[in-house]
Write a structure and sequence with these properties.
20 helices, about 375 residues
Length: about 375
């Protein structure tokens, strides 16, 4: 026969096994289900891409100083026209505009470029980035798709970006000269920079222990391209049902809706190449028409600077922040004025130009030669 103490222990043991777990007490079934649905892998990718982005900016900043003689002499980047062409060609080579824009800020931080030179190099990076959409269109042509439909989005992207950014150059130049926006700064930049310096400066110091300083810029450039690639992978996959497309088709005819949509999608993806490349398959499936995407491109060209603005904050350079802010405001002024005043005439002009280019192989060849030669000519001025 068991003693009273033993009996008490047995009862306690049985009662403990019947108690609900802590998760049962604190997390209802809907909460646990929602917890399991959280895309932890994508969140981890986002954290890794952000870590690599900050590391890349730190390395590029350190390595840009030693590249000054090369940029000034070998590439002859000595004025605003040179830097415009340099940024344009640089974006062609690496097939991306955002790393080139970050490079322009790193060169400005190192004293390689002045304010206007950094401004025009960033503008050139956006012109070169638009070529990527045209390149994707060529891939569709090689796969047997219609040349007109496949190339139209890329041609529109280049045409709209070229006309609006070149007009914005004049506004941006004026804003930089009079210093209207110099007082607008992101005040949290000092705290953010102090944290990043504590974490990432030791990495740069470690690498400089056995590598030449100039190689840090190239390493940072490679890392920042990887970071953007990882960020693209962590974006959610959007699927559109027929009912959703029916509602969207009524919205795409409104220029302001498409303008805001282009800005919003590019702000989330932080890549104008991603947001504009989405238009090519949608156009092939008949979901959007060429005339509907012009305001979309205009909106995307504004918010594509979000990552460059973050790079300016990480550099802790008020003038670098002002340069990017001027880029955003100047292109916003041009886009809004077009939408409010002569948008329909501008739309017809862009569509007529694209139709002319795609109507004949000679026209297309001439256009390709021009967009390849112009940045080289700018480098020689």
């Amino acid at each position: 026969m068991n003693s009273p103490a033993e009996h008490e222990l047995m009862v306690t043991a049985v009662d403990t096994t019947e108690l609900p777990t802590l998760s049962d007490l604190t997390l209802p079934q809907p909460v646990r289900t929602a917890w399991r649905r959280i895309p932890w892998a994508k969140i981890g990718l986002f954290g890794l891409s952000l870590f690599l982005f900050i590391l890349a900016i730190t390395l590029m900043k350190e390595g840009a100083r030693d590249l000054a003689p090369l940029v000034r002499s070998r590439f002859a980047v000595t004025n605003a026209a040179n830097s415009l062409g340099f940024g344009w060609l640089f974006a062609y080579v690496i097939m991306s505009g955002s790393p080139v824009a970050a490079s322009a800020l790193a060169f400005f931080q190192a004293g390689v470029l002045d304010k206007l030179g950094a401004f025009t190099m960033i503008t050139g990076s956006r012109l070169g980035a638009s070529f990527i959409v045209l390149f994707i269109g060529f891939i569709y042509v090689l796969r047997g798709r219609s040349r007109s439909n496949s190339l139209s989005m890329g041609l529109l992207s280049l045409s709209v970006t070229g006309t609006t950014y070149l007009a914005a150059l004049l506004i941006g130049y004026t804003l930089l000269r009079i210093g209207t926006l110099d007082q607008l700064q992101m005040h949290s930049g000092l705290l953010l920079t102090s944290v990043t310096e504590l974490i990432f400066d030791p990495v740069a110091a470690f690498l400089t222990g056995f590598l030449p300083n100039w190689t840090l810029f190239l390493i940072g450039l490679g890392i920042i391209m990887v970071s953007f690639n990882l960020f693209d992978r962590c974006l959610p996959q959007m699927t559109l049902k027929e009912s959703q497309l029916g509602r969207m088709s009524r919205l795409v005819y409104r220029p302001w809706v498409m303008f805001l949509l282009g800005g919003a999608i590019t702000m989330v993806s932080m890549s104008v190449s991603v947001s504009l490349s989405v238009l090519i398959p949608l156009s092939h499936r008949g979901f959007v028409r060429r005339e509907n995407v012009i305001p979309y491109i205009m909106g995307a060209n504004i918010t594509t600077f979000i990552d460059t603005l973050l790079a300016a904050v990480l550099l802790n350079n008020p003038q670098a922040f002002t340069i990017v802010l001027v880029e955003m405001i100047s292109i916003t002024i041009v886009s809004v004025l077009l939408l409010l005043t002569i948008f329909r005439r501008y739309e017809r002009a862009m569509l007529n130009f694209v139709a002319w280019v795609t109507a004949d192989n000679r026209h297309l060849a001439l256009f390709m030669v021009v967009i390849l030669v112009v940045p080289f000519v700018l480098m020689l001025l």
